[in-house]
Amino acid sequence: MEVAPAASPTGTRPRVVLGVSGGIAAYKSCEVLRRFTESGHDVTVVPTAAALEFVGAPTWAALSGKPVSTDVWDGVHQVPHVRIGQGADLVVVAPATADLMAKAAHGLADDLLTNTLLTARCPVVFVPAMHTEMWEHPATVANVATLRERGNIVLEPASGRLTGKDTGKGRLPDPSEIFETAVQILARGGAESDLAGRHVVVSAGGTREYLDPVRFLGNRSSGLQGYALARAAVSRGARVTLVSANVTLAAPAGVDVVAVETTEQLRAAVLAATAEADAVVMAAAPADFRPTNRSENKIKKAADGSAPALELEQNPDILAEISHHRARAGQVVVGFAAETGDASGSVLELGRSKLARKGCDLLVVNDVSGGAVFGSERNDVVILAADGDAVDVPEGSKVSVAHAIWDAVAPRLA
């Protein structure tokens, strides 16, 4: 996907500072840098001395087209330890080690990068990468909380293979996803991180109800809108749990992904995650019905050409359950309604009826007549509110629709 750079407040190319601290994942930041420069951003790389042990200064200089320094004494007449941060539209530190975040949380400034962090008045994004034990250490947990309380965005690390034979949470998210998050933050023009300190749960995709080990009942949900909601929430400072049903999309940077298949699994995962969530957005499409009896063996064709009888039962209504039985006071619940309209009412009439029946705060109504929306990168919706308000969101990218939904959620969290 080709990304046009957002305009800088000064009218010039967006000015991005890419801070790189001393972790093995530093080599992946070369790809982050490439994506920024190839999409027209003006990038200044500020590594730490330890980062240069992993990737040398010539590499950063060649990829950014600018000289690279770690020392506040280089080019001192230009006062780089002040000017770089002052002039930035966005600072991204990737990887952000436990040591770097500890210094940032406590205001230490012993090199060019930590000085830059103190002088920056633009959004600052930390992308942690470290071993699981370091990420979970109480000192790191406290430092991350401090940074987030100050309005910084600290992404959740990914889970997977770490250095050596270790596996766990602490892996640097995919560079393309880091870049996508950064672009969304720049597109908001330095707007306040209105979801900072909030935990939100998003569901995405479509559930499957198995008839036998091979066949299932399902739906056409691609998960694109749910994943766009998760990315948008991260870019606004939220901690995000994404319950993903049968989706093959890349995990968004900074998101905890819980994979599920069936509606019952989706229900269990959502209920567990909502216990401490400030907002829940049910963008997934749960199957309304499931087979009463599932065959343990593949169902064979009958010799006489007859089809097997299929008996169905209703699945639990997850949206109604979490709406009528809120896990926390003040929790905001958002549902989705994919409607086509019929003899009983128009798309919006059916949506309003569903909103009243489900008991959620907001309902995002899609007109999916003719299979529209499914698998598309674009969407148009109407956001209905329990208080009678309605917001018509014109056709745009699913990312823009996601931000419109969070625009409706954020003030209700207050």
Task: Describe this structure in a few short sentences.
The chain has 414 residues and is an alpha/beta fold. It contains 13 helices and 19 strands.
Features:
single chain; alpha/beta; Rossmann fold; 2 domains; eight-stranded mixed beta sheet; five-stranded parallel beta sheet; 13 helices
Characterization of this structure:
By secondary structure, the chain is α/β, with parallel strands linked by helices. It has two domains: 15-187, Flavin prenyltransferase-like (Rossmann fold, 3-Layer(aba) Sandwich), CATH 3.40.50; 199-413, CoaB-like (Rossmann fold). It is built from 13 helices and 19 strands. It has helices spanning 29-38, 57-64, 80-86, 98-105, 112-119, 132-136, 138-149, 175-187, 224-235, 263-274, 318-324, 347-358, 398-413; strands spanning 15-20, 42-47, 90-96, 124-128, 153-154, 158-161, 167-171, 199-205, 209-210, 216-217, 239-245, 255-260, 279-282, 289-291, 312-314, 332-339, 362-367, 378-385, 390-397. The strands form five sheets. The protein has an eight-stranded mixed beta sheet with strand order 12-11-8-13-16-17-18-19, with helices on both faces. Strands 2-1-3-4-5 form a five-stranded parallel beta sheet, sandwiched between helices. A two-stranded antiparallel sheet has the order 6-7. Helix 3 crosses helix 5. It is globular. It comes from Nocardioides yefusunii. This is Coenzyme A biosynthesis bifunctional protein CoaBC. Residues 15-184 form the Flavoprotein domain.
